[in-house]
Amino acid sequence: MTAPMLEMRNVVVDFDGFKAINDLSLSIESGSMTVVIGPNGAGKSTMCDSIIGRVRPTSGKVLFHGREIQAEAEHSIVGLGICRKFQTPGVLVALSVIDNLTIAATRDRRWWTKFGRKGEAEARSRAEEILETVGLAPRRDALAGNLSHGEKQWLEIGMVVATDAELLLLDEPTAGMGAAESTQTAEIVKALVGKHAVLVIDHDIDFVSQLGGHVVVLHQGQLLREGTLEQIRADEEVAAIYLGRA
Ligand SMILES: Nc1ncnc2c1ncn2[C@@H]1O[C@H](COP(=O)(O)OP(=O)(O)OP(=O)(O)O)[C@@H](O)[C@H]1O
Fold it and tell me: What span, in angstroms and rounded, lies between the C-alpha atoms of 242 and 165?
């Protein structure tokens, strides 16, 4: 039997006696979409931190294609093919959209780790492709600093995609967005699935329903439920704890 692409096995993250992640086990398959929801403080960001190597599990294992990565440095985890987008966009505001994407594509993790820097022409052609994927073709030459909040988020998704990571971690990609921008974000994220596995953290249930992925509910650092959004919505314990229904 082949190992899942990513597996968290009995992971505990203990901050001075407080278990932000408490015996969490879950698997993510290649090319899949997993959406993590849960109340504030459920441990969603800490879960991402423990996958990417920003936080060390106190116990348990994180495996990527069967290889233990829980003790690896963040940059080597990125080199293996896991890349994370944070809530706050980290684009280079003085550069154009296409230049931001080209720089990110130049740092394609496979070229970075195995062959040195990718050629400028190849990186630019990859950047042009990603420009379409994230819907920013009309804003190609705009300075990143002049983009709207939503456009900056899409550019940063594009920069994560440009690394050609196998697993993309998107932490609240719709933070601060209105309904129309959230819908467009769902379309962008759905288009990434297949080529990449995507793990999305988000609070917005409308957005989660537009994504249509496998839903994981975290509560107090533990996996409360997983399934389709319909199964999650029908679950009375989840409704009481998270969706606010008695
Ligand atoms: N470095 C830390 N030291 C101590 N406690 C922490 C640390 N990081 C997170 N926590 C605590 O761990 C718990 C889980 O936090 P986390 O940010 O992972 O939750 P979350 O589900 O992402 O919440 P939110 O939806 O509000 O972003 C919270 O109670 C938080 O205060």
Answer: 32
